[in-house]
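Per reviewer request, we include the raw input and output of the structure prediction for the construct analysed in the revised manuscript.
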Amino acid sequence: MKVGVLGAGQLARMIALAGYPLGLDFIFLDPAEDACANKLGEHLHGDYNDPQLLAELAERADVVTYEFENVPANVAEFLAAHTRVYPPALALAVAQDRLVEKNFLNNLAIPTAAYAAIDTLEQLNQVMPTIGYPAVLKSRTQGYDGKGQSILKYEADLATAWHKLEGVPAIVEAFVPFSREVSIIAARNVSGELVFYPLSENTHRGGILRVAKSKANDPLQHQAETYISRLMAALDYVGVLALELFDVAGELIANEFAPRVHNSGHWTIEGAETSQFENHLRAILDQPLGSTAAVGKTAMVNFIGNLPITKQILTIPGAHLHLYDKAPRKGRKVAHATVRAESTEQLAIALESLNRLAEKADDS
Protein backbone atom coordinates (compact mmCIF):
# COMPACT_ATOMS: atom_id res chain seq x y z
CA MET A 1 0.00 0.00 0.00
CA LYS A 2 1.44 3.36 -1.05
CA VAL A 3 0.40 6.57 0.72
CA GLY A 4 0.89 9.88 -1.06
CA VAL A 5 1.56 12.95 1.08
CA LEU A 6 1.34 16.58 -0.02
CA GLY A 7 4.20 18.13 1.87
CA ALA A 8 7.39 16.55 3.18
CA GLY A 9 8.11 18.41 6.40
CA GLN A 10 8.30 17.07 9.94
CA LEU A 11 4.62 16.11 10.11
CA ALA A 12 4.96 14.03 6.93
CA ARG A 13 8.12 12.53 8.43
CA MET A 14 6.26 11.45 11.57
CA ILE A 15 3.35 10.08 9.53
CA ALA A 16 5.82 7.93 7.60
CA LEU A 17 7.57 6.76 10.78
CA ALA A 18 4.19 5.63 12.11
CA GLY A 19 3.36 3.93 8.81
CA TYR A 20 6.41 1.72 8.42
CA PRO A 21 5.37 -0.76 11.15
CA LEU A 22 2.04 -1.04 9.27
CA GLY A 23 3.87 -2.04 6.08
CA LEU A 24 3.11 1.21 4.26
CA ASP A 25 5.25 2.95 1.64
CA PHE A 26 5.26 6.69 1.04
CA ILE A 27 5.61 9.13 -1.83
CA PHE A 28 5.89 12.85 -1.06
CA LEU A 29 5.20 15.88 -3.24
CA ASP A 30 7.06 18.95 -2.00
CA PRO A 31 8.75 21.96 -3.65
CA ALA A 32 11.70 21.93 -1.20
CA GLU A 33 14.68 19.93 -2.41
CA ASP A 34 15.88 19.31 1.16
CA ALA A 35 12.45 18.52 2.69
CA CYS A 36 13.06 16.55 5.86
CA ALA A 37 10.77 13.57 5.06
CA ASN A 38 12.68 12.80 1.86
CA LYS A 39 14.66 9.92 3.33
CA LEU A 40 11.50 8.09 4.35
CA GLY A 41 10.01 7.67 0.89
CA GLU A 42 10.11 8.79 -2.73
CA HIS A 43 10.23 12.52 -3.34
CA LEU A 44 8.41 14.20 -6.21
CA HIS A 45 10.26 17.50 -6.28
CA GLY A 46 8.18 20.35 -7.65
CA ASP A 47 5.28 22.73 -7.21
CA TYR A 48 2.00 21.50 -5.73
CA ASN A 49 0.22 22.69 -8.89
CA ASP A 50 2.56 20.85 -11.30
CA PRO A 51 0.11 18.86 -13.47
CA GLN A 52 2.66 16.20 -14.41
CA LEU A 53 3.64 15.53 -10.80
CA LEU A 54 0.01 15.52 -9.67
CA ALA A 55 -0.86 13.00 -12.36
CA GLU A 56 2.03 10.79 -11.25
CA LEU A 57 1.02 11.06 -7.60
CA ALA A 58 -2.60 10.21 -8.41
CA GLU A 59 -1.56 7.20 -10.48
CA ARG A 60 0.92 5.76 -7.99
CA ALA A 61 -0.70 6.47 -4.60
CA ASP A 62 -3.51 4.30 -3.25
CA VAL A 63 -4.60 7.18 -1.03
CA VAL A 64 -3.37 10.78 -0.67
CA THR A 65 -3.26 12.92 2.46
CA TYR A 66 -1.54 16.19 3.38
CA GLU A 67 0.56 17.50 6.22
CA PHE A 68 -0.44 21.17 6.28
CA GLU A 69 -3.47 23.25 5.43
CA ASN A 70 -1.91 25.66 2.93
CA VAL A 71 -1.86 23.08 0.14
CA PRO A 72 -4.08 24.64 -2.56
CA ALA A 73 -7.61 23.26 -2.24
CA ASN A 74 -7.85 22.89 -6.03
CA VAL A 75 -4.93 20.43 -5.86
CA ALA A 76 -6.85 18.21 -3.45
CA GLU A 77 -9.95 18.49 -5.66
CA PHE A 78 -7.95 17.45 -8.75
CA LEU A 79 -6.43 14.46 -6.96
CA ALA A 80 -9.81 13.43 -5.53
CA ALA A 81 -11.09 12.99 -9.09
CA HIS A 82 -8.41 10.34 -9.68
CA THR A 83 -7.71 8.69 -6.33
CA ARG A 84 -8.85 8.75 -2.70
CA VAL A 85 -7.94 11.97 -0.85
CA TYR A 86 -8.41 12.42 2.91
CA PRO A 87 -9.15 14.73 4.66
CA PRO A 88 -11.64 16.06 2.07
CA ALA A 89 -10.91 19.16 0.00
CA LEU A 90 -13.75 20.99 1.78
CA ALA A 91 -11.78 20.91 5.04
CA LEU A 92 -8.84 22.59 3.29
CA ALA A 93 -11.03 25.24 1.69
CA VAL A 94 -12.64 26.17 5.01
CA ALA A 95 -9.44 26.14 7.08
CA GLN A 96 -7.45 28.22 4.58
CA ASP A 97 -9.55 31.36 5.04
CA ARG A 98 -10.03 32.68 8.57
CA LEU A 99 -13.27 34.46 7.68
CA VAL A 100 -14.79 31.38 6.04
CA GLU A 101 -13.60 29.31 9.00
CA LYS A 102 -15.18 31.62 11.60
CA ASN A 103 -18.46 31.71 9.68
CA PHE A 104 -18.42 27.91 9.38
CA LEU A 105 -17.85 27.44 13.11
CA ASN A 106 -20.54 29.94 14.07
CA ASN A 107 -23.04 28.27 11.75
CA LEU A 108 -22.43 25.05 13.71
CA ALA A 109 -23.12 26.86 17.02
CA ILE A 110 -19.45 26.61 17.96
CA PRO A 111 -18.69 29.95 19.63
CA THR A 112 -15.80 32.17 18.54
CA ALA A 113 -14.53 35.63 19.43
CA ALA A 114 -16.33 38.57 17.83
CA TYR A 115 -14.83 39.26 14.40
CA ALA A 116 -15.20 41.29 11.22
CA ALA A 117 -13.86 41.10 7.67
CA ILE A 118 -11.44 43.90 6.79
CA ASP A 119 -10.50 45.01 3.26
CA THR A 120 -9.51 48.64 3.90
CA LEU A 121 -8.09 50.77 6.69
CA GLU A 122 -11.37 52.70 6.69
CA GLN A 123 -13.30 49.50 7.44
CA LEU A 124 -10.91 48.71 10.28
CA ASN A 125 -11.51 52.12 11.84
CA GLN A 126 -15.28 51.71 11.48
CA VAL A 127 -15.56 48.30 13.19
CA MET A 128 -13.19 48.86 16.12
CA PRO A 129 -15.79 50.58 18.38
CA THR A 130 -17.81 47.35 18.10
CA ILE A 131 -14.91 44.87 18.31
CA GLY A 132 -13.15 46.81 21.08
CA TYR A 133 -9.56 46.86 22.33
CA PRO A 134 -7.40 44.86 22.58
CA ALA A 135 -7.92 42.96 19.34
CA VAL A 136 -5.91 41.02 16.77
CA LEU A 137 -5.64 41.86 13.08
CA LYS A 138 -4.83 38.80 10.96
CA SER A 139 -4.43 38.05 7.28
CA ARG A 140 -7.30 35.85 6.14
CA THR A 141 -4.96 33.34 4.48
CA GLN A 142 -1.43 31.96 4.78
CA GLY A 143 -1.00 32.65 8.49
CA TYR A 144 0.69 30.22 10.87
CA ASP A 145 2.89 30.37 13.98
CA GLY A 146 1.90 34.00 14.56
CA LYS A 147 2.78 35.19 11.04
CA GLY A 148 0.54 37.82 9.45
CA GLN A 149 -0.81 39.00 12.82
CA SER A 150 -0.69 42.24 14.78
CA ILE A 151 -1.99 43.14 18.24
CA LEU A 152 -4.19 46.22 18.36
CA LYS A 153 -4.10 47.93 21.75
CA TYR A 154 -4.99 51.48 20.80
CA GLU A 155 -6.46 53.39 17.88
CA ALA A 156 -2.95 54.58 17.04
CA ASP A 157 -1.99 50.97 16.20
CA LEU A 158 -4.49 50.58 13.36
CA ALA A 159 -2.65 52.23 10.47
CA THR A 160 0.66 50.54 11.24
CA ALA A 161 -0.94 47.11 11.59
CA TRP A 162 -2.93 47.51 8.37
CA HIS A 163 0.08 48.65 6.30
CA LYS A 164 2.10 45.74 7.73
CA LEU A 165 -0.33 43.38 5.99
CA GLU A 166 0.34 45.20 2.69
CA GLY A 167 -3.31 45.36 1.72
CA VAL A 168 -4.18 41.65 1.81
CA PRO A 169 -7.73 40.68 2.89
CA ALA A 170 -7.85 40.51 6.68
CA ILE A 171 -9.99 39.73 9.68
CA VAL A 172 -10.03 41.50 13.04
CA GLU A 173 -10.88 39.47 16.14
CA ALA A 174 -11.73 40.65 19.62
CA PHE A 175 -9.31 39.61 22.33
CA VAL A 176 -10.53 36.63 24.36
CA PRO A 177 -9.80 36.89 28.12
CA PHE A 178 -8.85 33.23 28.44
CA SER A 179 -7.36 31.46 31.44
CA ARG A 180 -5.64 28.85 29.26
CA GLU A 181 -5.35 27.59 25.71
CA VAL A 182 -6.35 23.99 24.96
CA SER A 183 -6.84 21.80 21.93
CA ILE A 184 -8.67 18.59 21.21
CA ILE A 185 -7.54 16.08 18.62
CA ALA A 186 -9.90 13.51 17.15
CA ALA A 187 -9.70 10.85 14.45
CA ARG A 188 -12.52 9.64 12.21
CA ASN A 189 -12.21 6.80 9.70
CA VAL A 190 -14.02 6.29 6.41
CA SER A 191 -16.67 4.14 8.11
CA GLY A 192 -17.43 6.93 10.60
CA GLU A 193 -15.73 5.49 13.71
CA LEU A 194 -14.65 8.40 15.91
CA VAL A 195 -12.12 8.60 18.75
CA PHE A 196 -10.93 11.52 20.89
CA TYR A 197 -7.62 12.20 22.60
CA PRO A 198 -7.48 13.82 26.03
CA LEU A 199 -7.35 17.62 25.89
CA SER A 200 -3.94 19.20 25.45
CA GLU A 201 -3.16 22.28 27.54
CA ASN A 202 -0.93 24.51 25.43
CA THR A 203 1.58 27.29 26.07
CA HIS A 204 2.57 29.64 23.24
CA ARG A 205 5.26 32.28 23.02
CA GLY A 206 5.82 34.52 20.03
CA GLY A 207 2.84 32.87 18.34
CA ILE A 208 4.57 29.46 18.39
CA LEU A 209 3.54 26.46 20.48
CA ARG A 210 6.16 25.76 23.14
CA VAL A 211 4.60 23.17 25.49
CA ALA A 212 1.60 20.85 25.23
CA LYS A 213 0.49 18.81 28.27
CA SER A 214 -1.99 15.95 28.16
CA LYS A 215 -4.92 16.63 30.49
CA ALA A 216 -6.68 13.32 31.03
CA ASN A 217 -10.08 13.70 32.74
CA ASP A 218 -10.21 17.45 32.11
CA PRO A 219 -13.64 18.88 33.09
CA LEU A 220 -13.98 20.48 29.64
CA GLN A 221 -13.31 17.26 27.71
CA HIS A 222 -16.97 16.59 26.96
CA GLN A 223 -17.62 20.14 25.74
CA ALA A 224 -14.60 19.93 23.42
CA GLU A 225 -15.71 16.53 22.10
CA THR A 226 -19.16 17.93 21.34
CA TYR A 227 -17.70 20.77 19.27
CA ILE A 228 -15.20 18.68 17.32
CA SER A 229 -17.81 15.98 16.63
CA ARG A 230 -20.10 18.64 15.17
CA LEU A 231 -17.28 19.99 13.02
CA MET A 232 -16.18 16.60 11.69
CA ALA A 233 -19.73 15.61 10.81
CA ALA A 234 -20.30 18.85 8.88
CA LEU A 235 -17.09 18.34 6.90
CA ASP A 236 -17.71 14.60 6.36
CA TYR A 237 -14.20 14.39 7.73
CA VAL A 238 -11.75 11.49 7.47
CA GLY A 239 -8.38 11.58 9.27
CA VAL A 240 -7.05 13.44 12.30
CA LEU A 241 -8.34 16.94 13.05
CA ALA A 242 -7.30 19.41 15.77
CA LEU A 243 -9.55 22.13 17.20
CA GLU A 244 -7.81 24.91 19.13
CA LEU A 245 -9.86 26.49 21.92
CA PHE A 246 -9.74 29.14 24.63
CA ASP A 247 -10.95 28.34 28.14
CA VAL A 248 -12.95 31.35 29.33
CA ALA A 249 -14.29 30.76 32.85
CA GLY A 250 -15.08 27.14 32.08
CA GLU A 251 -16.60 27.78 28.65
CA LEU A 252 -14.76 26.95 25.44
CA ILE A 253 -14.35 29.50 22.63
CA ALA A 254 -13.00 28.17 19.33
CA ASN A 255 -9.89 29.78 17.87
CA GLU A 256 -9.24 27.72 14.71
CA PHE A 257 -9.01 24.17 13.45
CA ALA A 258 -6.27 22.31 11.61
CA PRO A 259 -7.30 19.58 9.14
CA ARG A 260 -4.24 17.43 9.82
CA VAL A 261 -2.07 15.93 12.52
CA HIS A 262 -1.13 18.69 14.94
CA ASN A 263 1.83 19.94 16.94
CA SER A 264 -0.14 19.87 20.19
CA GLY A 265 -0.64 16.12 19.70
CA HIS A 266 3.04 15.16 19.47
CA TRP A 267 2.89 13.91 23.05
CA THR A 268 0.78 11.01 21.75
CA ILE A 269 3.84 9.35 20.18
CA GLU A 270 5.04 8.04 23.54
CA GLY A 271 2.17 9.27 25.70
CA ALA A 272 -0.87 7.50 24.22
CA GLU A 273 -1.74 3.91 23.41
CA THR A 274 -1.94 4.91 19.73
CA SER A 275 -0.27 8.03 18.37
CA GLN A 276 -2.16 10.64 16.35
CA PHE A 277 0.04 9.72 13.37
CA GLU A 278 -0.85 6.04 13.43
CA ASN A 279 -4.54 6.83 13.92
CA HIS A 280 -4.44 9.24 10.99
CA LEU A 281 -3.17 6.44 8.77
CA ARG A 282 -5.67 3.96 10.18
CA ALA A 283 -8.46 6.48 9.51
CA ILE A 284 -7.61 7.23 5.86
CA LEU A 285 -7.17 3.49 5.18
CA ASP A 286 -10.49 2.74 6.91
CA GLN A 287 -8.86 0.50 9.51
CA PRO A 288 -10.14 0.19 13.11
CA LEU A 289 -8.92 3.13 15.18
CA GLY A 290 -6.57 2.55 18.11
CA SER A 291 -7.04 3.49 21.74
CA THR A 292 -6.35 7.15 22.51
CA ALA A 293 -5.87 6.63 26.25
CA ALA A 294 -2.94 8.49 27.78
CA VAL A 295 -0.09 6.44 29.22
CA GLY A 296 0.93 8.04 32.51
CA LYS A 297 1.41 11.80 32.82
CA THR A 298 2.79 13.15 29.59
CA ALA A 299 3.75 16.32 27.72
CA MET A 300 5.71 17.69 24.78
CA VAL A 301 8.26 20.52 24.47
CA ASN A 302 9.14 22.12 21.12
CA PHE A 303 12.69 23.11 20.25
CA ILE A 304 12.60 26.31 18.22
CA GLY A 305 15.48 27.83 16.28
CA ASN A 306 18.26 25.59 17.57
CA LEU A 307 18.89 22.30 19.36
CA PRO A 308 20.20 21.53 22.84
CA ILE A 309 22.89 18.89 23.14
CA THR A 310 21.24 15.49 22.69
CA LYS A 311 22.84 14.07 25.81
CA GLN A 312 21.32 16.85 27.94
CA ILE A 313 17.82 15.85 26.81
CA LEU A 314 18.26 12.11 27.10
CA THR A 315 19.52 12.35 30.69
CA ILE A 316 16.08 13.64 31.76
CA PRO A 317 13.99 10.72 33.09
CA GLY A 318 11.14 9.81 30.73
CA ALA A 319 12.32 12.06 27.88
CA HIS A 320 12.25 10.99 24.24
CA LEU A 321 13.86 13.14 21.56
CA HIS A 322 12.51 13.57 18.01
CA LEU A 323 14.87 15.33 15.60
CA TYR A 324 13.47 16.65 12.31
CA ASP A 325 16.70 16.72 10.29
CA LYS A 326 16.22 20.45 9.69
CA ALA A 327 18.92 23.13 9.74
CA PRO A 328 18.72 25.56 12.68
CA ARG A 329 16.99 28.86 11.89
CA LYS A 330 15.37 31.50 14.05
CA GLY A 331 11.68 30.73 14.63
CA ARG A 332 11.90 27.29 13.00
CA LYS A 333 10.66 24.10 14.67
CA VAL A 334 13.69 21.79 14.54
CA ALA A 335 12.75 19.06 17.06
CA HIS A 336 10.59 18.18 20.01
CA ALA A 337 10.85 16.00 23.08
CA THR A 338 8.07 14.09 24.75
CA VAL A 339 8.27 13.25 28.42
CA ARG A 340 6.31 10.70 30.40
CA ALA A 341 6.14 10.32 34.16
CA GLU A 342 4.25 8.38 36.82
CA SER A 343 3.11 11.45 38.73
CA THR A 344 2.25 15.10 38.13
CA GLU A 345 5.18 16.12 40.33
CA GLN A 346 7.68 14.06 38.33
CA LEU A 347 6.31 15.47 35.09
CA ALA A 348 6.68 19.04 36.37
CA ILE A 349 10.33 18.45 37.28
CA ALA A 350 11.12 16.96 33.87
CA LEU A 351 9.27 19.76 32.06
CA GLU A 352 11.21 22.40 33.97
CA SER A 353 14.48 20.85 32.79
CA LEU A 354 13.29 20.56 29.18
CA ASN A 355 12.01 24.13 29.15
CA ARG A 356 15.35 25.46 30.36
CA LEU A 357 17.12 23.61 27.56
CA ALA A 358 14.56 24.83 24.99
CA GLU A 359 14.89 28.45 26.06
CA LYS A 360 18.68 28.29 26.04
CA ALA A 361 18.70 26.77 22.55
CA ASP A 362 16.21 29.36 21.28
CA ASP A 363 18.31 32.21 22.66
CA SER A 364 21.38 30.86 20.88
